[in-house]
From TrEMBL:
This is 4-diphosphocytidyl-2-C-methyl-D-erythritol kinase. Residues 197-273 form the GHMP kinase C-terminal domain. It catalyses: 4-CDP-2-C-methyl-D-erythritol + ATP = 4-CDP-2-C-methyl-D-erythritol 2-phosphate + ADP + H(+). Keywords: ATP-binding, Isoprene biosynthesis, Kinase, Nucleotide-binding, Transferase. Pathway: Isoprenoid biosynthesis; isopentenyl diphosphate biosynthesis via DXP pathway; isopentenyl diphosphate from 1-deoxy-D-xylulose 5-phosphate: step 3/6. Its EC number is 2.7.1.148. SUPFAM superfamilies: GHMP Kinase, C-terminal domain (SSF55060), Ribosomal protein S5 domain 2-like (SSF54211). GO terms for molecular function: 4-(cytidine 5'-diphospho)-2-C-methyl-D-erythritol kinase activity. It comes from Sporolactobacillus kofuensis. Gene3D superfamilies: 3.30.230.10, GHMP kinase, C-terminal domain. Belongs to the GHMP kinase family. IspE subfamily. NCBIfam families: ispE, PRK14608.1.
Amino acid sequence: MKVLEKAPAKINLSLDVLGKRDDGYHEVRMVMTSIDLADRVECEDLPEDTISIRTSAPYVPEDERNFAYQAAKCIKETYNIHRGVAISIKKNIPVAAGLAGGSTDAAATIRALNRLWNLEMTYEAMLDIAVQIGSDVAFCIKGGTALATGRGEQIAPLPSLPPCWVILVKPAVSVSTAQIYKELDSKSADHPDVDEMIEAIKREDFLGICQLLGNTLEAVTMKKVADIGKIKQHMKTIGAEGILMSGSGPTVFALTQHESRMQRLINGMKGYCSQVFAVRLCKPFPLLSKYE
Ligand code: ATP
């Protein structure tokens, strides 16, 4: 048997780093939302008790370093499963781009194996696996829009954003999330107003959301990747309601509710960068999520 799961990327609307914890992780407060730029994760039964992994992109590990492999291994150990699985990942999300590509593949693997092996996992049981793989995996289990706190693994759902286009521009470099956090001095850094962002989302105030976009890590990555500043400036000149770098970067996104602006941004940015996408937002996975 074979099951297929969609694995959507995320963007950070607000990302605040509060400081470093004793366990080495950073304490964060982030508002994230899923977007319709997605990998495809396929899980198929194997006759022998092994995990095999194949991806469509170069430079993505095809062994135990892949987060999808780690998710499968963790489920097998936790539920004492002696069955094999072949995981195949069609990568559409740029790698090491601040879009949680690896984390969403791990989350999709958890959802897929729950179905393939009839595990009847609750949302909480999926979260227990997710936190063992990485901090962003927990958000990706359910997706949609949410506040993530702690090291990013504590998830509180939020209402969906008003409909809009998300235009993503990925400079031709990749950055290491760990390195960006290492170089951050959270005391002297800028801190976005996460609570105001949550309020703007709750009152469906699209322009308010755009004005409140903020990311503590942006200045750190910008120092290393000069293209980020240039892309932001160019997008501003073309026109967008809001512009920000996602996660630890280097992908920059713009939000707009106007199709004509979306078209202008795509055309204008294509001559500037080779990886340009325009996508819609992605709803939370229906079986698991309900905003109360
Ligand atoms: P985040 O936004 O969570 O910080 P990111 O989008 O910046 O993550 P990823 O695309 O997840 O970064 O890639 C980071 C590293 O993770 C890659 O360099 C790669 O070696 C490793 N990796 C492991 N599994 C995967 C996967 N399934 N897809 C992509 N990268 C993976």
